[in-house]
Specification:
- This protein is mainly alpha-helical.
- The chain has helices at 16-51, 55-74, 81-112, 116-141, 147-176, 179-196.
- The protein has one domain: Four Helix Bundle (Hemerythrin (Met), subunit A).
- 82% of the residues lie in helices and 0% in strands.
- The termini are far apart.
- Bound molecules: fe (ii) ion (FE2) (2 copies).
- The site of one fe (ii) ion has 5 residues, from helix 2 and helix 3.
């Protein structure tokens, strides 16, 4: 009868499979830590909005933050290519997160409360603003010429959009929500924002 002895590590052979497993475990741990760090960063970003108060106050605070970035970009010159790129990235992130909160939650609640045309109009305006931010990024990567003109157009569209939201459409929604509905909307909006913060 032949006896087979299983010898996994012979002649100083490197334990590749074990090392591979260790590397995987270390990688997974690192990935886990990375996820934790990312979650912490997202929580910190969303906390600024949540701290402003209810959904409407949170959105108004974000409008102000975006306005500040528009103003900083308007102060740049065609020689400030790197600075423009950094500020534009910040503006894209700020407006991107803001728009996700509105499109996935607030505008849906607008429709639930009969403000369908308002929701559709605001949503279309977000599309125009995304296009403007894309155009600015492309101009910023190239010769810079025309950057400030396109920025001024984008800023004007942004301000008109914000005026409609803050002075007309959102106050009407707010007046049609009871305290419980407003609380639900605030929580739902902050959860959506956290995902992309
Ligand atoms: Fe909006
Ligand atoms: Fe907004």
């Amino acid at each position: 009868m032949t006896t087979t002895t299983y010898k996994p590590y012979r002649n100083g052979q490197t334990d590749n499979s074990s090392n591979g497993t260790s590397a995987l475990v270390a990688g997974a741990a690192g990935f886990g830590l990375g996820l934790l760090a990312a979650a912490g960063r997202r929580a910190a970003v969303q906390a600024v909005t949540a701290a402003a108060g209810d959904w409407f106050e949170g959105l108004k605070a974000e409008h102000k933050m975006a306005r500040t970035l528009f103003e900083k970009l308007a102060e740049t010159t065609d020689d400030d290519k790197a600075k423009r790129a950094t500020l534009l990235l910040q503006l894209q992130h700020a407006i991107g997160k803001h728009n996700v909160q509105e499109e996935y939650v607030v505008y849906c609640v607008l429709r639930e409360h009969g403000q369908t045309d308002d929701a559709d109009e605001l949503h279309a305006e977000h599309g125009e603003l995304k296009q403007a931010l894309f155009d600015l990024e492309m101009i910023g990567k190239r010769q810079q010429t025309g950057f400030l003109d396109r920025l001024a157009e984008a800023r004007a569209a942004f301000e008109e959009h914000v005026r409609e939201e803050e002075d007309d459409i959102f106050p009407r929604l707010q007046s049609s929500l009871d305290a419980e509905q407003a609380k639900l909307l605030t929580g739902r909006m902050n959860r959506e924002g956290f995902k992309v913060a």
